[in-house]
Amino acid sequence: MNQIQSIPTVPIYGLNVSKLNMNDTVSYLESIVGTGKPHQIITANPIMIMTALEQPQYMHIMKNAELLVPDGAGLVWAASTCGQPVAERVTGFDLLHRLLDVGQKHSWKVYLLGSTSEVIQAAAARLQSLYPGIVIAGYRDGFFGPDQDAEVIAGIREAAPDLLFVARGADTQEPWIGRYKQELGVPIMMGVGGSFDIISGKAKRAPVAFQKMRMEWFYRLMKEPYRYKRMLVLPKFALKVLKDKESVVKAQ
Description:
Blueprint: E1 9-12, E2 15-18, H1 22-35, E3 39-44, H2 46-54, H3 56-63, E4 67-70, H4 73-81, H5 92-103, E5 109-114, H6 117-130, E6 135-140, H7 149-159, E7 163-167, H8 170-184, E8 188-191, H9 195-200, H10 208-212, H11 216-223, H12 228-231, H13 233-243
Parallel strand pairs: 3-4, 3-8, 5-6, 5-7, 7-8
Antiparallel strand pairs: 1-2
């Protein structure tokens, strides 16, 4: 957690969320790669915060991540509402692309982990085409159990990437990275959710209009109505922030 102390943060329910804008975040992470030390980056949103408040183990994972960026629009709103605004929303999808773009001048090696075999293969090919200066050092699907963790870790260590992107769902990817980050030894490790589906062309990102209105969650809900139970957490988070306004950003 030493590195996170060197950047401005806002403590939202005891979790230090970065105040940096996208450009400064990318510059900061570019310098981190040079250290060679493992860093877990979590693209935080209200659902993750609420999960952490209910599950001590998840809270521990988030508190021990080296950097939390405000991916969810709800976090940007909460920070502003409580008088400690962040510079802007830093989405994981855009951060992934920005890091790969910067990585071209360094010939960074990248490992992709998660989703189906078909999707991850297509995503790897697409990213190599978009960013020819990077090296796709390896990839594999996310369908493996705890009994295969050692095998997966060994494959990643052998590839020796500078960046590791993991797409296995927020309830799985963050705990997995958090548990094994020292063994993995990758300078930048980040969970990217459904990003590979979008990159591969299997799914579409919300239109720019929805992004600007900070309503990507609503677009996803229209496309995937079965997510409604998960989305119900968003108004619960908003109500909790309003109720706890005086204590939300107090260090815990």
